[in-house]
Amino acid sequence: MISSILLNILGPILLLIALGALLRRRFGLDLTTLSKLNIYLLTPAFIFKHVAYSKLTWASMGGIVAITVPAGKEDARTAAGIVRVRRG
Q1: What is the distance of C-alpha 28 from the center of its chain?
Q2: Cα gap 74→72, rounded to integer Å
Q3: What share of the chain is helix, strand, coil (3-state, %, to 5)?
Q4: Domain ranges of the chain
Q5: Distance (Å, rounded) from C-alpha 55 to C-alpha 34?
Q6: Distance of alpha carbon 88 from alpha carbon 80, whole angstroms
Q7: Is 12 within 8 Å of 50 (Cβ atoms)?
Q8: DSSP state of 38
Q9: C-beta separation of 16 from 38 below 8 A
Q10: Is residue 17 within 8 Å of residue 35, measured between CB atoms?
Q11: DSSP 8-class letter at 41
């Protein structure tokens, strides 16, 4: 069970971290560029791949979306509030 968790969950995350470190060293990319690459390209591709090949039923996926979307909206509101407080 532990090896399954390490391989299926942590493995892809650690692979993305290693890829980012390699790209930074080889091409001199700054951290902002790597963050944007990860957020806008790699993470959506990772999520799409796992959802596309998932064995979940449509009903289960609907439940996950019903929980995730409001949580994401709340995260966005919190981030916007933090930005407003920092700007003064």
Answers
A1: 23
A2: 5
A3: 90, 0, 10
A4: 1-54, 56-88
A5: 31
A6: 13
A7: no
A8: I
A9: yes
A10: no
A11: I
The residue type of 29 is L
Position 85 scores a pLDDT of 92
Task: Output the pLDDT for position 37.
Answer: 81
Q: Whole-prediction pTM value?
A: 0.43
Please give the distance of CA 25 from its chain centroid, rounded to a whole number. Answer: 22
In order along its 88 residues, the chain shows pLDDT tens digits of 788 878 888 899 999 899 888 888 888 878 787 788 888 898 889 888 988 888 888 888 888 888 888 888 898 899 999 999 999 7
Contact 34/24 with Cβ under 8 angstroms?
Answer: yes
CA–CA separation, 77 and 88 (whole Å): 17
Query: What single-letter amino acid sits at 37?
Result: L
CA distance 46 to 53: 11
Question: Would you say the C-alpha torsion 76, 78, 33, 48 has a positive or negative sign?
Answer: negative
